[in-house]
Amino acid sequence: MAVVTVHRDLATQTLVVWFGDPRKSTHADHTDSDVIVMLDEGGRPLGIEVLDYAGDDGPLEVHGETADSHSGKRFLSRINVWWPRKPGWEKQ
């Protein structure tokens, strides 16, 4: 069974979702949609950090796709993140 941990920081308006072991995170990629993807040594996603997430914007949806590795283990290979933004958010 997969374990997902969620941390919401009201002071910085960020939301962090881990669906892998955070201790295995070696680097991160910043997307063009205010989402940072934390990756392991092999480039597999372990978690995301959503920037400017106030929480009252609405529900966060995270959709993931898995794939098989050469060793036969499944891993998360693609992530889509969506959350509604209030009108005028880009002007803040």
Q: How would you describe the overall organization of this protein?
A:
This protein is mainly β and 92 residues long. It has one domain. Helices cover 0% and strands 46% of the residues. It is built from no helices and seven strands. It has a five-stranded antiparallel β-sheet, with no helix packed on it. It has a two-stranded antiparallel sheet with strand order 6-7.
Task: Please describe the topology of this protein.
Elements: E1 5-9, E2 14-18, E3 27-30, E4 35-39, E5 45-50, E6 61-68, E7 74-82
Antiparallel strand pairs: 1-2, 2-5, 3-4, 4-5, 6-7
Q: Nutshell version of this structure?
A:
The protein has 92 residues and is mainly beta. The protein contains no helices and seven strands.
Integer average pLDDT: 76
The tally of helices reads 0
* Biggest β-sheet description: 5 strands, antiparallel
Number of strands: 7
H and E order: EEEEEEE
Q: Given the helix and strand composition, which structural class is it?
A: mainly beta
Q: Strand fraction band?
A: over 45%
Alpha-carbon distance between the two ends: 40 Å
Largest sheet: spatial strand order: 1-2-5-4-3
* Computed CA radius of gyration, to the nearest angstrom: 14 Å
Overall 3D shape: elongated
Classify the helix fraction into a percent range: under 10%
Main features:
mainly beta, five-stranded antiparallel β-sheet, about 45% strand
